[in-house]
Amino acid sequence: MLPILFESGPIKVYSFGVMVIVAFALCYYLAWDGFKKLDIERQKLNMVIAIIAISAFFGAKLFYIFEIRHAVNLGLIQSFELNAGLVWYGGFFFSVIAGFFYIGRWHQKRLDAIDVLMPLVLLGYAIGRIGCFLAGDGDYGPPSDLPWAMAFPNGVVPVATKVHPTPLYDSALSFTFFLITQLNKKRWQRGITAIIALFFLGLTRFITEFFRTTEIWYFGWFTLAHVFSLFLMGSAIFWFLTVRIKNNK
Question: Is 5 helix (H, G, I), strand (E, B) or coil?
C-alpha cells in the first residue's frame, strides 16, 4: 500500500514506524491519565512501560526464532536483528508476565492499574495493525473475491492477487473491543475490565487467524496463534471465575 510515507534524500519515513509511534504516544497518554486518577506517580508508569517494552521485544524475537526463522532461512544471530521480524503473541506473553510481576507488588492499586493498562493493549494493537496494512508486510490472508479484498503490489511483501486485508480485520475488532471496555468500565468490578480485555485479545486473534496463510500445526485447523489465543481466553475465564468465587465468599 504505502510502506514509505515520504522521503527526502537519504531520510525515509516508514508508515509502520509512524503508526507504532502513534500507538505508543496515545496509549502512554491514556495510561498516564488513568494513573493520575489512581494517584500513581509517573515514575511507576515509566518503569512499567520500560519493563513491558524490553520484555516484549525479547519475547517477540524468541517466538520468531521458534516459529518463523526456519521458513525464511535466517541464522540465529540474524534473527535478533531489528529488521528480522517479531511475533506479537511472544511479545505479549513475556510482557504480561514481566508487567504483572512488577505491578503485583503494588498491593491495593494493582487491580486498578491493570484495569487501566490491559485495554490499551487492544488499542495499541488496533493502531499497529493499521501500520501493517499500510506497509503491506505480508500479514494478509488468502486470495479472495470479496468486495473489500485488495492487492498489495507496492507492499514490503508484494502480492498482485486480491487477498483478505487481514490487518484491517484485526484493527477493526480490536478497536471495537477497546470501545466496549471503555464504555462499560465504570460499572464493572475492579479487575473485570482487565479480564474482559484479555479475553477480547485472545478472541480477536483467534478469529482473524482463520484469515491468514499461517502454517497449520494442530488437528488440521489450528495454528500456534490459535493455541495461544485459546490460552488467553481460558486464562481470562479462569481469572473471572476466581474473582466471582472470591467476591461471593
Answer: strand
| CA atoms of 154 and 4, how far apart (whole Å) | 10
Position 85 scores a pLDDT of 59
DSSP notation for 22-48: HHHHHHHHHHHHHHHHTT--HHHHHHH
pLDDT in tens, 157-174: 889 999 999 999 999 999
Distance CA 91, CA 63 (A): 8
What is the residue-averaged pLDDT of the chain? 87
Of all residues in the chain, the percent with pLDDT exceeding 70 is: 90
Closest among 61, 66, 95 to 81, alpha carbons compared:
61
Q: Is 70 exposed, middle or buried (0-12, 13-18, 19+ CB in 10 A)?
A: exposed
**Structural domain spans, the chain:** 4-39+112-248
Contacts 24+ apart (CB under 8 A), 79-82: none
Name the DSSP letter for residue 3: S
Beta bridge partners of 163: 143, 150
pLDDT level of residue 46 (50, 70, 90 thresholds): very high
Confidence label for 245 from pLDDT (cuts 50, 70 and 90): confident
**Helices vs strands, H then E, count in the chain:** 8, 4
Partners of 218 in beta bridges: 222
**Predicted local distance difference test score (pLDDT) of residue 249:** 64
